[in-house]
Design goal:
Layout: E1 3-4, E2 7-13, E3 16-21, E4 25-27, E5 30-33, E6 39-42, E7 47-53, H1 55-71, H2 76-89, E8 98-103, E9 108-112, E10 117-118, E11 124-128, H3 131-144, H4 149-161, E12 172-175
Antiparallel strand pairs: 1-4, 2-3, 2-11, 3-12, 4-5, 6-7, 7-8, 8-9, 9-10
Length: 176
């Protein structure tokens, strides 16, 4: 059975990074959970991560990512590149089905199993079922308002939840 139900939006704006995620998990055409926690602070609260995809896979990646952060003394970009290399090259990791958004006080990145580490030009990135809806809303808000990173992330997720059936407005937002 196919599981859907994640929207994660990350924004770096005015020296702050926020990641917001909804809580819905859907199996087939039924909502099986409404308050899943898909956002975490790691590395002593200095890095925020949000994940989309298979939960067990995402937690495996989060653990490895935190190890890479420790090895690279908190260098987000270097840790992300090292994780992406391992993810792409390791037979077991290669089968993991998840994506991560990671941010610190200086930047925000998308990390995926294809070996990509992407830093968005406009400092806004989204993943998951409602990701494109949240991304469009966040870009519009960023261009037309003076709202902060957290406020834009929450409003973008609320907009996505009104469009995407796999997204709800039970959200968690973390900011650094």
């Amino acid at each position: 059975m196919i599981m859907h139900g994640t929207t994660i939006i990350g924004i770096h704006r005015n020296g702050k990074t926020a990641i917001c995620g909804d809580g819905q998990v859907t199996m087939g055409d039924a909502i099986v959970k409404g308050k899943a926690q898909k956002i975490r602070k790691i590395y002593d609260g200095k890095v925020i991560v949000g994940f989309a995809g298979a939960t067990a896979d995402a937690f495996s990646l989060l653990e490895r990512f935190e190890e890479k952060l420790k090895t690279n003394k908190g260098n987000l970009k270097k840790a992300a590149i090292d994780l992406a290399k391992d993810w792409r090259q390791d037979r077991i990791l290669r089968r993991l089905e998840a994506m991560l958004i990671a941010g610190d006080k200086d930047s925000i990145l998308l990390i995926n199993g294809a070996g990509d580490v992407l830093e968005p030009d406009d400092n806004i990135i989204a993943i998951g079922s409602g990701g494109n809806y949240a991304l469009a809303a966040a870009r519009a808000l960023a261009h037309k308002t003076k709202l902060g990173a957290s406020e834009i992330a929450v409003e973008a997720l609320n907009i996505a939840s009104g469009i995407c059936i796999y997204t709800n407005n039970n959200y968690i937002v973390e900011e650094i």
